[in-house]
Amino acid sequence: MGRLGDWLRGRRTKETAPATAVEAQTNGHSASDELVEHLRAAFPGAEITVSSHDPKLSDLTGGDPVERLERLAALHASGALTDEEFAAAKARLLG
User: Fold this and answer.
1) Which range in 25-34, 42-51, 86-95 is most confidently predicted, on average pLDDT?
2) Together in a domain, 22 and 44
3) CB burial class (10 A; 0-12, 13-18, 19+) of residue 45?
């Protein structure tokens, strides 16, 4: 399963009660299917919730939609956002 899966399995001990819910924060990194897969393997039967708060996009939540798109495009052009992050943020803005 890789290093993340090994680490997650190593964090569990026999004294630990089984998890019924697991919440992960990606802190600006895209939540991936691989992360969810590792969490499900490490915590069988638990409800898995993965959210992403991207500090680079925090200023895009208010104001004029055109201005928000311009800021988003500027972040992408500067290299602060990958193509995937840009496409996802643009899709969220356009609803």
Assistant:
1) 86-95
2) yes
3) exposed
Higher pLDDT, 87 or 31: 87
pLDDT, one tens digit per residue, over 1-14 is 456 555 555 555 44
* Domain housing 79: 56-94
Statement to judge: residues 14 and 45 lie in one domain: yes
The b-or-e profile of 66-88 (16+ CB within 10 A means b, else e) is eebeebbeebbeeeebeeebbeb
For residues 20 and 60, state if they share a domain.
no
* Same domain for 86 and 63: yes
H or E segment at 50?
A: strand 47-51
Angle between helix 83-94 and helix 65-78 axes, rounded to 10 deg:
180
**Distance (Å, rounded) from C-alpha 65 to C-alpha 54?**
18
